[in-house]
Amino acid sequence: MAKRILFVCLGNICRSPLAEGLFRHKATERGLAGEFEIDSAGTGAWHAGELPDKRMRRVAADRGVSLDDIRARRVELTDIFEFDHVFAMDRSNLADLRSFDVPDYVRGRIVLFRDFDPDPSHPDVPDPYYGGERGFQEVFDIVARTCDELVNRLA
Ligand code: 4NP
Predict the structure, then answer these.
(1) Which residue minimizes the CA distance to atom 14 of ligand 1?
(2) What average pLDDT does the segment 54-72 reach?
(3) 3 confidence band (pLDDT: 50, 70, 90)
């Protein structure tokens, strides 16, 4: 059975849709797409139904990764039951997800994304939303190398 993987950030328009797109891209490149069901969501609903942020889409597209089929949605309690692994993009997202009233065996599926970063300079994927172009490039580099590691571990 396919492993179900969910990435969660605040708005679901920058970091977590990038992680969804990059993980899918890397799994597909390696012929492993059928092993995974991949999705993303946000702890906030402000951008529900929207495409990822155009700055994030452009940085990803420049490096061969399309985010054009992704639409933002809010994370729901049922997600935590239905996904095998839930990756929080920063510690604030992690705390929000862990505040869901779920049994411990389910809460244990919720982990911090950068715990799997092979070059972890900081626990959080920085929120690029209010910053400039460089922030989006930095987020891409962090998420790309961490998704490589995750595909290796989960395949
Ligand atoms: P994300 O970035 O959590 O990586 O999608 C953000 C997007 C939107 C907002 C904050 C962060 N916002 O406040 O609308």
Answers:
(1) 11
(2) 98
(3) very high
Helix orientation angle between 54-62 and 15-29, rounded to the nearest 10 degrees:
20
User: How many Å lie between the centroid of ligand 1 and the Cα of residue 51?
Assistant: 12
**10 CB near ligand 1 (under 6 Å):** yes
What integer pLDDT is reported at residue 141 of this predicted model?
98
Alpha-carbon gap, residue 17 to 40, rounded angstroms: 6
Closest residue to atom 6 of ligand 1, CA basis? 11
Query: For residue 97, which of 88, 85, 84 has the smallest C-alpha distance?
Result: 88
Of these residues, 57, 90, 127, 147, which one is catalytic? 127
Structural domain count of the chain: 1
Q: For residue 125, give its domain range.
A: 3-154
Q: Is 127 marked active-site?
A: yes
With a pLDDT cut of 70, the percent of the chain lying above it is 100
CATH number of the domain bearing residue 123: 3.40.50.2300
